[in-house]
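Hypothesis: this fold can be encoded by more than one sequence.
Test: take the structure tokens below, design a sequence, compare later.
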């Protein structure tokens, strides 16, 4: 059994489900598509254009967020998870919509696949050295200056030689970090910078993390 299978076991007929972005979420969407073909009735709200395209391709019906509130469940991945289930997300560049969908859901389930357990399950956030920050294009110079003042030099994410543009029309900075002692405090400080739309720090968001490793799935719950 995979963590996608366990997450599917949490989906009941008629649910509205937030569909995350990235490899782990893609596996869940594909598995959900198979269940839909078998008769499961669900409505999906995707966190990215890529996820929307995949969901449509595998037959998962999609609706706008406005037509699905509150979502019953959101299933997504993460780039780092600490022992308190705080996370860094956004390496797949969908951090803002992922945060919105998570906030709209009654329960947030995070999947960590077997190929990435060692690097994603961390003692402290920031171990991988990168924190994504989504920024209004006009504000990029200001935000980079303020990040540098906080000791977090940042590079603009590029694609084919040009600044990457998110589904929201923004740019993404990759701030260089070391282990973060106060994720909630840093998130608040970064979001206070004019022009910052969102950060990859997801504190107190995950309800359940399903870690697949060695042929078994470990279920971690917030507060347990």
């Amino acid at each position: 059994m995979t963590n996608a299978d366990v997450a599917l076991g949490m989906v009941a007929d008629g649910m509205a489900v937030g569909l995350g972005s990235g490899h782990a979420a893609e596996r869940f969407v594909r598995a959900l598509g198979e269940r839909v073909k078998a008769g499961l009735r669900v409505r999906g709200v995707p966190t990215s254009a890529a996820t929307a395209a995949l969901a449509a391709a595998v037959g998962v019906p999609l609706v706008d967020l406005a037509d699905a509130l509150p979502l019953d469940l959101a299933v997504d991945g993460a780039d780092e998870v600490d022992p308190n289930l705080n996370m860094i997300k956004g390496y797949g560049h969908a951090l803002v919509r992922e945060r919105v969908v998570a906030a709209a859901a009654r329960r947030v389930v995070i999947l960590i696949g077997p190929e990435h357990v060692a690097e994603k399950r961390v003692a402290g956030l920031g171990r991988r050295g990168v924190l994504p920050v989504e920024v209004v294009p006009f504000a990029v110079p200001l935000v980079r200056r303020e990040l540098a003042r906080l000791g977090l030099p940042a590079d603009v994410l590029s694609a084919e030689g040009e600044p990457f543009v998110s589904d929201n029309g923004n740019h993404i900075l990759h701030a260089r970090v070391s282990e973060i002692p106060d994720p909630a405090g840093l998130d608040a400080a970064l979001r206070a910078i004019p022009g910052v739309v969102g950060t990859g720090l997801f504190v107190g968001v995950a309800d359940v993390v399903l870690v697949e490793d060695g042929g078994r799935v470990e279920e971690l719950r917030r507060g347990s």
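The longest helix spans residues 23-37. The chain has a mean pLDDT of 97.
Hypothesis status: open.
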